[in-house]
Amino acid sequence: MNVLSPPVSRDLVVVGAGIVGASVAYHAARAGATVTLVDAGRPGAGVTADSFAWIGASGVRKGPAAGLRATATAEYHRLGAELPGLPVTWSGSLSWTREGSAPDAGPGQTIVDAATAATLEPTLRQPPQWAVWAPDDGAADSVGVTERLVAGARAHGARVHLDTPVTALRRDAAGRIAGVDTAAGPLSGATVVLAAGVATAALGAPLGVRVPVEPSPCPLFRLRAPAGLVRTVVNTEDFDLRQVAPDRLIAAADSPERTLAAVRSTFQGTGSVELLSTRLGVRPMPADGEPIIGPVAEVPGLYVTVMHSAVTLAAAVGRLAARELVEGTAEPALSACRPDRF
Fold this sequence. Notes:
Number of strands: 20
Strand order of the largest sheet: 6-7-5-15-16-17-14-18
Distance between the termini: 26 Å
Helix content: 10-25%
């Protein structure tokens, strides 16, 4: 059995109630740990709320976290069985480019022709000659999932401190983690899990811990649209697009004007489509684009979980990180994601 070094503890403080921190807190509390979850705001109110929230394991072929990403949809199905009513929609995803040649299909994907694309998305003005269909993909109500995870953590005994900014990490005389300082006073814990997104680097810096994560802007547009205009998660060179309510779409793209024009030119019946809001989320982007997950060797008791594709990976990372934290075992799927690779 592989054992993590330094050793971990069953007394945890999780900093950050975004979807990753909430998942770690839920899974650790469910496994019997004593968990304190603390956040400066409300569950999922930060970058989690500004995520396009596409859940997909298809097409994953390479990269340090390829094995982790390949489990994403299965882990969400497992989580949905544990938390019935979890707000995830399994619509599949349809992707295409302007190139005429047939694309390559990755694991879990199928190449479909124009007729099939038109069946999957009936309002397309001009179905693509070829598209990639991933029937197992889905999308989450990211804030709703986070709230359910926090409620699940509470149900398993976790203490939750919201609207409570963490100001510093605490260490004892031997240099080991002892908890956190907050605006409302100290919170004790033998292990601190940093799941604070882009704030993770600033919290680690006073301890000499370098977490190479930078803010990466991610515009998200909300549109008013007719019911049923889009049925799947649609991915093109112009946008990622999906229906989130009978009269609402969200799009991840660069420009609101170009996105609105592209939606109108791609789908029929879009005369009434209008832009409702624009949000600019600041997602945490590790230096190499891959998750940073695991213990920090130079600060015993400190464990980091920061990543892009946080919504996609949250169910898997929460379960695996909790196993490492509560049981002290090293999970092979996380082995290439360690902080010491930098």
